[in-house]
Amino acid sequence: MIREDADGNAFAGYLTANDAEDPATELTYQLAETSSGPFVIRGNSIYLKEGAHLDFDEHPTYDLAVRVTDSHGGSTTEMVTIRVLDVSDEEQPPIDIVLTHSSIAENASNGSQIGAFTIIDPDQGDAFHLELVGSADGRFALFDGRLTVADGSRLDYEQDPAHTIRLRLTDASRHSMEKEFTISLLDADENTPPPPPPPPPPPENSAPTMMMLDGVQVVENVSNGTRIGQLRAHDPDNDAMTFSLLDNSDGRFAIVDDYVVVNDRTKLDYEQATTHQITVRVTDDHNNHRDAVFTIHVRNDLRDDDP
């Protein structure tokens, strides 16, 4: 899955395969000659081509024919579906930036935290980038969304009791805004050492990202329990993750040991429907979750056509 506003060389997904005859063999991946479009394969990863642009309204999905070859020269070709994530054309710019605390003792040690920035954005869940474009001549720094002391030796209440910084915020739709903040210095007793800085708050836990299904095709009439593809996801905090089905396509599919499997073979009929959609949720052990929709392609069982 990849956002439609992704830049060139953006990551789109991992490729995995197994060789039952020689599990230790080295596998290489490449696009088959019949595949064209805005993607390239490097190693076992799919990337957006340099200079390529995506449009959800024109191409919500791309089906890539990927050839995997083992070290003995054996190869097979499978279809991999890349889903383009719609980015609303009506996304709104951020409204405000709030600093939770704006004062610090003079001569505070480098790395001391002053306050955390909070973003007010009408687009819930929008990603954003913060940049300190005015650091009061190097006195302050931005670290993980928090304002910290960069050079405490230049924080002298008697020389200047306040300093101005400027912050720039850019969201995922490239809307940006800037805001100035005044940082006040607290007069300290020069005869006693300053108190130690307060401990930083624990980092916020993030939801899993980049959910992938490495197989999206199944032949009609296969047995219940047949594996279609393995689900994978990345969690920025390395939390344990579990997968569940929010929509199992009327009972056709199930998840067993992180694999999407056939649950009711009688409902997989190529002549009646060639594709079915499922909705998968991945949840980490902090109950953060992300949902994704995958299209399962039903292939014709040629034995049905035998006289």
Description:
With 307 residues, this protein is an all-beta fold. The protein contains no helices and 23 strands. It has strands at 2-3, 11-14, 28-31, 39-42, 45-48, 61-69, 75-85, 96-99, 103-105, 113-120, 128-134, 140-143, 146-149, 162-171, 176-186, 209-213, 217-219, 227-234, 241-247, 253-256, 259-262, 275-284, 289-299. Strand 22 (275-284) and strand 23 form a beta hairpin. The two termini are 42 Å apart. The model has no long low-confidence stretch (mean pLDDT 86).
- The level of helicity is under 10%
Query: Average pLDDT, to the nearest integer?
Result: 86
Provide the spatial order of strands within the biggest beta sheet.
1-7-6-3
Poorly predicted spans = none
Shape: elongated
Number of helices: 0
Assembly type of the shown chains?
single chain
Judged by helices, strands and strand pairing, the structural class is mainly beta
Please state the CA-atom Rg, rounded to the nearest Å.
Answer: 26 Å
Ends apart, CA distance between termini: 42 Å
Q: Tally the beta strands.
A: 23
Q: Main β-sheet: number of strands, strand sense, barrel status?
A: 4 strands, mixed
Please report which band the strand proportion falls in: under 5%, 5-15%, 15-25%, 25-35%, 35-45% or over 45%.
Answer: over 45%
SSE string: EEEEEEEEEEEEEEEEEEEEEEE
